[in-house]
What does this fold into?
Amino acid sequence: MASQASFDVSTGADLQEVDNAVNQARKEITQRFDFKGARAAEIELDRAKGELRLHADDEFKMKALADVLYAKLAKRGVPLRNLTAGAPESSGNDTVRRTDMLTQKIESEIARDIVKRVKAQAFKKVQVAIQGDELRVSAPSKDTLQEVIAFLRGEDFGIELKFGNYRS
It folds into this structure.
């Protein structure tokens, strides 16, 4: 029997890099002129839930706070496609809060869409299996796997895909 080569498709951000970006954004906010004297200009990271909570004085400062944070995240290599911005909501003392969600796993609906699109391409002897939060793609030919990776990179699933654990 021929051996199967495989790779895993996953998503997510390195939470340490997200933490570093949040710390850099906090540092920049303390030094920026437009945030001097602000009652609320805070960024919190909840690693367990994958949430970024932003708290600012008003909508304008919320946008500036988010811009600083997103610039730091992009600089640290965190995929911004995996970040879903929440709707601003008013909180006490005429301030505004917002919760942004960080996608750390491939949702089942997106996983089924990936499987459907790969099967629709009719790659030769390619098998795709959903394994919890990621997918395993296997085929007898390494060249076919490279074609699948190129195909998946060209498609838009709304999240950043990572390819790893390549085995032959």
